[in-house]
Amino acid sequence: MGLGNYLALPFAQHALLAGTLIAIICGVIGPFVIARQMAFAVHGAAELSFTGAAAGLVVAGNPIAGALMGSVVVAGLIGVLGEKPRERDSAIGVVLAAGLGLGVLLLSHYQGFASAATNILFGNIFGVSRGDLFLLVGLALVVLLAMMTIYRPLLFSSVDPELAKARGVPTRLLGILFLVLLAVTVTEAAQIVGTLLVLSLAITPAAAAQRIAAAPLAVTGVSIGIALVATDGGILLSLNGTTVPPTVFVTGLSFGLYVLARLIGPTLARRRRERLRVLRAAEV
């Protein structure tokens, strides 16, 4: 069965639509994760969405809703307990340890198919139903609208938090709100790569983008582009007559693009410096 035949099927269409949505919001939120040095927070939110997903499976047979609720609760806890940057990692570690233990306990009481539990850890983009897709669309819109609303003050507080606080920017509120949006994003990304590999979408594209671009909006645009290539490209490669899960292709493409960005980044940065020097010389 060829790729064209697969693309005519609803499961493939749902997978590509879901992948596109997730890539966009990961591309938008990733640069702020790096700027605010919150990679460990992404890891913590991803791992603890596993606990929420396990609870959702046990209680209602709905891992996505459970993961969403669990990750939002965890984001609030991290925001309150880790308000100061030096306290954030230890707070995440404490909550992570307790949450994972609870997740293992909940999963031990799940009597359904083992594949449902495995999908929490490794993702199952081809299992996205129409109802799941509507939920993902709604969550993506919420995240994008919220990020558009708080973009400027969040950027200010990410670059220079002390000055932003002195200027009256509500840095603590912004930090908690960003953590909640991050938790929602992580929950969506876990539908593709699972909770164990969510960093490949929430961190890697943005890390690669910062090697290529310099201006904040340019970094965001490149981050979205890399996330789209990795996500949709991975899904298409998986559909193209192979039994390899899409997670492997998504993470592989994401990492490969990051390596490429590291290789060409110094050349691009040197060209930007030379162009800036020429412009400054022309002004003089």
The assigned structural class equals mainly alpha
Strand content range: under 5%
Which CATH architecture would you pick?
A: Orthogonal Bundle
Name the overall outline: globular
CATH superfamily: ABC transporter involved in vitamin B12 uptake, BtuC
Q: Mean pLDDT, nearest integer?
A: 82
- Helicity range of the residues? over 70%
- Count of separate structural domains: 1
User: Which segments are poorly predicted (pLDDT under 50) over 5 or more consecutive residues?
Assistant: none
* Radius of gyration from the alpha-carbon trace, in angstroms: 20 Å
- Overall CATH class: Mainly Alpha
| Major pleated sheet | none
CATH topology category name: ABC transporter involved in vitamin B12 uptake, BtuC
Count of discrete alpha- or pi-helical segments spanning 4 or more residues: 13
H/E element order: HHHHHHHHHHHHH
- First-last Cα distance: 65 Å
Number of E-type strands: 0
